[in-house]
Design goal:
Layout: H1 2-13, E1 20-25, E2 36-42, E3 49-53, E4 60-64, E5 76-79, E6 84-89, H2 105-115, H3 119-128, E7 137-142, E8 148-153, E9 158-162, E10 173-176, H4 191-206, H5 212-219, E11 239-241, E12 251-258, E13 270-275, E14 283-286, H6 307-319, E15 330-332, H7 333-364, H8 369-387
Antiparallel strand pairs: 1-2, 1-10, 2-12, 3-4, 4-5, 5-6, 6-7, 7-8, 8-9, 11-15, 12-13, 13-14
Helix pairs in contact: 7-8
Length: about 400
């Protein structure tokens, strides 16, 4: 009976929905003791761009929509205190449900990045805001003091789920898609994505391999459906229905924010960023720096267009070549299986070089800005040499 009920929920939850798959991981569960925030961002906007802000108490790197010219809504990011935040929309904690254009999630995340250094600061912020909050979010938060938690936040209150509490997170991680555990289980979205993420994270936790690379490659590019168990790696048809996998047609970006140990400088917080679909882009690590810069391939122009985002969109057109009707629901599997290993191969070189640099910086407990500038320059050259040929 319970199995039938769950399947019913899952079937009703399968919808186009513009949603996200997210996770919070305690440093106690990672091989190096550093906490992780993960967000696979799905949106009907389809595009994202990066923001570097110095207007608040703390500087921050964040992500927003290209058409948000004043950067009012920040969708994820980390600040100079080592505080990081992201969210997933929740569809089962407010009745009636808040309309998308009435939610304040992005405004609150910007405010948090500007003013918070700890989980306690974020809780105080939520408590200080006037009600109704106009929020319907699962906020994932980590800080530079070992904090790692979700805040399921509705119009009037929030419920905290601490990833450091073994009664709540026995394996040191928590997953949220588009429903809240404190809400009504018959509502919400993203149940099939949750099932697949749970299977992946559980297996990885058993081998002590919950790393940024795992989230960027194994989770964000998972080709197994959580409900049907269809595995596109073994699929022998030209086209497959592509709904409610973790990566989706509507995936616009991925970020895996790797925090620091309590003994380390917050400046070492790293945002591993995939701008554009994870099936057509590669990760590039980002840090706060005195020049307030990103690699050129991640820097938007006067029209708010970012090269990497545009290139990933071009690859997406190859993956979803049917332009009529419901074409966005069907992926061309042979193209997918050719492109995916090439992306991972390109990405592996970036990750390997970055880890060597990060290890040096961690030994000295500070970022070497000259090395950062040189690394960003290498990224730009490397992307042009190795990644751009995929567009042909």
């Amino acid at each position: 009976m319970k199995k039938t009920y769950l399947i019913t929920i899952l079937l009703f939850s399968i919808s186009i929905g513009y949603s996200c798959t997210t996770a919070v991981v305690s440093g106690k569960a990672t091989p190096d003791g550093r906490p992780i925030l993960y967000k696979n961002r799905d949106t009907n906007t389809l595009h994202s761009r990066l923001v570097y802000s110095t207007s608040g108490k703390y500087s921050f790197i964040g992500m927003t929509n290209p058409n948000d010219l004043e950067n009012k809504n920040i969708l994820n990011g980390h600040n100079s205190a080592g505080f990081a935040i992201m969210n997933s929309d929740s569809y089962n904690i407010n009745y009636p449900e808040i309309k998308e254009n009435q939610r304040r999630d992005g405004e609150i995340m910007r405010l948090a990045l500007e003013s918070c250094s700890t989980l306690e600061d974020f809780e105080k912020l939520l408590n200080s805001l006037s009600k109704p909050l106009r929020l319907s979010s699962n906020f994932g938060v980590i800080d530079a003091h070992g904090g790692a938690a979700y805040y399921e936040t509705g119009n009037l209150e929030f419920v905290k789920y601490d990833a450091n509490n073994p009664d709540i997170a026995p394996f040191g991680y928590i997953i949220r898609t588009n429903y809240s555990f404190s809400g009504k289980p018959e509502d919400g979205k993203g149940y099939s994505r949750y099932l697949q993420a749970q299977e992946l994270l559980y297996s990885s936790s058993l081998t002590n391999s919950l790393t940024p690379k795992f989230f960027l490659q194994d989770v964000s590019r998972s080709l197994v459906h959580g409900l049907t168990k269809i595995d596109l790696n073994k699929y022998d048809e030209q086209f497959s229905a592509f709904r409610d996998f973790i990566p989706r047609y509507f995936t616009a970006s991925v970020v895996t924010i790797q925090g620091v140990k309590p003994t380390e400088s917050p400046s070492l917080t790293t945002s591993w960023t995939i701008l554009g679909t994870s099936l057509g882009s590669v990760t590039i690590p980002l840090w706060l720096n005195s020049n307030k810069t990103f690699p050129k391939v991640l820097t938007s122009d006067s029209k708010q267009v970012t090269p990497m985002d545009e290139w990933a969109s071009a690859i997406k057109k190859k993956l979803f070549p049917i332009q009529k009707g419901e074409g966005s629901d069907y992926i061309h599997v042979p193209t997918l299986l050719v492109i995916k290993p090439k992306l991972i191969s390109i990405e592996n070189e970036i990750i390997q070089r970055c880890e060597l640099i990060l290890n040096e910086w961690r030994n000295k407990d500070k970022i070497n800005e000259k090395e950062l500038t040189n690394f960003y320059s290498w990224i730009d050259t490397y992307i042009h040499e190795k990644y751009l040929p995929l567009l042909k």
